[in-house]
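Consider the following assembly input.
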Amino acid sequence: MTSTTATRSLPAQLAVRFGIAATLAVSGVIHAYLYIDGGYRYIPTVGSGFLVQASVFCALAVLVLAGAPTLYSWAAGALSVGALIAFALSRTIGLLGFTERGWSPSPYAALSVIAEALTVILVAALVLAKRRGVKK
Amino acid sequence: MSSQRDPNGMTRRQLMRHSAWFGSAVVLTVVGGEVISHIAGSTGTTKQQAGPTLRFVQISDSHIGFNGPANPHVADTFTHAINQVNSLDYTPDFVIHTGDLTHLSTPQQFDQVKQMLTGLKTPHVFTVPGEHDSTDDAGQKYRAAFGAGTRGDGWYSFDVAGVHVIALVNGLHMQKLGHLGTDQLDFIEKDVAGLSSDTPIIVFSHIPLFAMYPDWGWGTDDATQALSYLRRFSSVTCLNGHVHQLFSKTEGNVTFHTGTTTAYPLPHPGDGPAPKPVTLPAGALHDALGIREVSYTKGQQALALKEQNLQ
């Protein structure tokens, strides 16, 4: 029974891993685009933050896709939560002196939020699956 | 050999595997960052080859005449800022002062600040008044000192290096918020009517043209109307003072950048009941004061900003 369950869960785990890699890549590429062509690189501090976010998320996407230990998926989830918090701050009290309104720049803001939220959901699913596996 | 355990229970093979993954993470991140920076740099090839088309400096809120514990030596810190502008490795095309040149708009304070501004090594100095420059006369003394060639309450525009610059006055008739008024709104509409939509626009004013913190008057009640005339332009950059702190914000094609002061800091929005001067610990004041370098390169959408603390 255990081996059958493990065999059945393997495609699901692979799908989750590919999903995490894809959503990380989407968020990273969007931030890279906004940094390169969206004018964000000229915004003090936050501009550098976009560069770091883009490079870290793209690197994590490659590593997760290549089968890195689960720790890297957890890191991806934590960083995505951080990115979502930063987005929320920029729409409310400001982030390092930077604020924006609503879903501007459209459609990139909405797409990156969706990608990061999906990363968090997929990582949470991965963590739950691991816990269930440990209990069994 | 490879399965030898260390005291924490990790085999050498596991340790090597973790190191390899971590090393890959670091290398990929650095390489990714380099690639993105390189692409970003190559999109600004013109800048690297020909240098910026336009370079200017923003200074703001010198409050000459202020004498309080937050900064008992505002003339000294303003002189410091002027010297810092003069020590740049290039001559700025112009310097803008975004208002509150004086603290109480007395003739002596206007004389002093005007005299001090002549020390700037730049071909042009442009100013707009703040509410401290019009405490008792709706800006008459300001216009007598700085209003040559301006219209209305002191607004004007000019073109330089393919950029259209608009100087607005929103601190003279403020009730709770800054106010532009019908005449000035008409001026803006007509002023930009003949411009091509790809003309970069720079707007400078004293009070923010966005609602930064309306409870403290940090906004302009009729700015939406003014900005509606600028929506069709691909790049609009609004620079302001008044709030004595750095803050940036984008709304579609418009980017707002508030500048810091050369006099004294104010609290962050909502910190305390009112925007009273903040007295910092000894030695920390210069970090809150500064100047801003602004450059524009033809072909690029956004202006590049570089903030400098008073050193």
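The CA atoms of residues 52 and 117 of chain B lie 25 Å apart. Ask yourself how this observation constrains the way the partners meet.
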